[in-house]
Design goal:
This protein is mainly α and 470 residues long. The protein folds into 3 domains: 1-126, 3-Layer(aba) Sandwich (Rossmann fold); 127-157 and 203-284, Serine Threonine Protein Phosphatase 5, Tetratricopeptide repeat (Alpha Horseshoe); 295-467, Orthogonal Bundle (DNA Cyclobutane Dipyrimidine Photolyase, subunit A, domain 3), CATH 1.10.579. The chain contains 22 helices and 5 strands. The chain has helices at residues 17-24, 37-40, 44-63, 76-87, 100-115, 145-152, 179-182, 192-195, 202-217, 221-224, 237-241, 247-259, 265-284, 309-315, 322-334, 339-352, 357-367, 373-384, 399-406, 411-416, 426-434, 454-467; strands at residues 3-7, 29-35, 69-72, 91-95, 119-123. The chain has a 5-stranded parallel sheet with strand order 3-2-1-4-5, with helices on both faces. Helix 1 (17-24) links the parallel strand 1 (3-7) and strand 2. It starts with a strand and ends with a helix. Flavin-adenine dinucleotide is lined by residues 225, 233-237, 240-241, 271-272, 274-275, 278, 339, 342-343, 346, 364, 368, 370-372, 375-376, 378-380, 383.
């Protein structure tokens, strides 16, 4: 009988423990993707990107003589049960996911299938270190990055598995939905074609990104990773989010570079472990996704009204603060934002504007093609000061001096801001082509005045903290 392999955020053939186990049985394999409520409700850009990833992976499987069977079903369990009935499969394998909704769903699926006498097994692969496998000396979980890093950096990480040589096809294929009918890009207000040129899709592209990074960029990574005008990082977050590459593959390649003495390799390894740390925290304290992680922040008077004009200005990249606006526009056009930009815009929203980090978290979830529930929540709470290992709440980034420091020649600001520029960059203009007319912005307008003055905003934030007794 065939085995169902249920793909989710693991759209690759190599280093895929579940697929490896399936192929080792020698039995026919039926790869499946189910669009359930969880994936159907994704933010616009992550959903669009997931659609592209699925389409590409289906082509890769076809080239192997296999297929990706697509089903839409509010509950994944129902979709799986239908397929079990139609194909006679008695086994379902998948790669574990760690966000609370996926854990609830997958546990229920496993229990229900087992009760039916179906073998249901989950495998690792999305993370190098299972969140429960990393413990402090007293058996707790880590709340601070550095000791987490010290503990895991000396661990052995499994060597990546090769891609299966072939996937045995079943005697007959069950019916599949047509991906186009799922309209995965439909919620992209800015039009899917705006972001598409910036996407690098699939396993092969991810491997070549890793290769290019380690041959050309890693030696300067320590300096360049902070410069938003320089393409100095791996850009792998987009691929890691959908499992088009595994962290193990990145780790082992990074380790090789480290042992070759390449500067920057260790910091890259550390960044990969930040991703693991985010998952560690999400597993042990799932409230990080929805509530202030530091309990003493519970009563902090964040502004939660999204209709406020400052929030709109922040989302629309017209706060009058060039670093903030450049980064927000970069995200709108490319679906990505440089890490320094993410820190700056998050600090500005939560500190200068005293808005709830959840507003930013949600907007990022709508706009980022590399959206990751754990990294996004940790990044926002870190920036806001309410999270674990946070930037101290009293440290308010000054977005003006930050720009002077990290974008000396203003190449980044110029790339994204067209106003008051006689010869605007094509990307800066692409932004104006992408935004809805009703935002009322035009490149020939003059650049807006700050919605909140930088030093005023800082003072206001510090006062709010003081009033709270911090
Ligand atoms: P590189 O510098 O090449 O790093 C390699 C990999 O390490 C990344 O691909 C990523 O998987 C991991 N990594 C690096 N920095 C971090 C970090 N701070 N936290 C967790 N993992 C990290 N990252 C996402 O992948 N998805 C998100 O939704 C996301 N939201 C964020 C929101 C905020 C407010 C902040 C401050 C950070 C956020 N990050 C997020 C983390 C970071 O900005 C991105 O991972 C990074 O910019 C991706 O670029 P890169 O792949 O070139 O990274």
């Amino acid at each position: 009988t065939p085995i169902l392999i249920w793909f989710r955020r693991d759209l690759r053939l190599s280093d895929h423990p579940a697929l490896h186990a399936v192929c080792a049985t020698g039995r026919p394999v039926i790869p499946v993707f189910i669009l359930d409520t969880q994936y159907d409700a994704l933010g616009a850009a992550p959903k669009f990107r997931m659609g592209l990833g699925i389409g590409h992976f289906a082509e890769v499987l076809s080239a192997q003589g296999s297929r990706l069977i697509l089903r839409k079903s509010a509950k994944a369990l129902d979709g799986l049960q239908e397929l079990i009935k139609e194909t006679g499969a008695e086994t379902v394998y998948w790669t574990r996911q760690y966000d609370p909704d996926a854990v609830t769903r997958d546990s229920a699926v496993k229990a229900a299938l087992k009760e039916q006498g179906i073998e249901a097994r989950s495998f690792g692969g999305h993370l190098m270190f299972e969140p429960w496998s990393v413990q402090t000396k007293t058996g707790g979980y880590y709340k601070v990055f550095t000791p987490f890093w010290r503990t895991v950096k000396i661990r052995d990480v499994e060597a990546p598995l090769p891609a299966p040589r072939s996937l045995t096809a079943p005697e007959s294929w069950p019916a599949s939905d047509d991906l186009a009918d799922w309209q995965m890009g439909a919620a992209m207000q800015r039009g899917a074609e705006v972001v598409r040129p910036f996407v690098q899709l699939g396993e092969q592209a991810a491997q070549s990104r890793l290769g290019v990074f380690l041959s050309d960029k890693v030696s300067d990574y320590n300096e360049n990773r902070d410069l938003p005008a320089v393409d100095g990082t791996s850009n792998l977050s987009e691929n890691l989010a959908l499992g088009e590459i595994s962290p193990h593959q990145c780790w082992h390649a990074g380790q090789r570079a480290f042992h070759e003495g390449k500067a920057g390799a260790e910091v890259f390894l550390k960044e990969l472990v930040w991703r693991e740390f985010a998952y560690h925290l999400m597993h042990h304290t799932p409230r990080i996704l929805t509530h202030n992680w530091r309990e003493e922040w519970a009563g902090f008077d964040w502004n939660e009204d999204e209709r406020r004009s400052e929030v709109r200005a922040w989302k629309q990249g017209r706060t009058g603060i060039p670093f903030v606006d450049a980064a927000m526009r970069e995200m709108y056009v490319t679906g990505r934002m440089h890490n320094r930009g993410r820190m700056i815009v998050a600090s500005y929203l939560t500190k200068h504007l005293l808005c709830h980090w959840r507003i930013g978290q949600k907007w990022f979830e709508d706009c980022l093609i590399d959206w990751d529930p754990a990294a996004n929540a940790m990044g926002w709470q870190w920036s806001a000061g309410s999270g674990p290992d946070a930037s101290p709440y009293f440290r308010v980034f000054n977005p003006v001096t930050q720009l002077e420091k990290f974008d000396k020649g203003h190449a980044y600001a110029d790339r994204w801001i067209a106003e008051n520029n006689a010869a605007p960059h094509q990307d800066a203009l692409a932004y104006f082509d992408a935004i809805p007319k009703q935002w009322g912005m035009a490149p020939e307008n003059s650049y807006p005045k700050p919605v909140v003055d930088v030093s005023e905003g800082r003072k206001r934030a510090l006062m709010a903290y003081e009033n709270k007794g911090f």
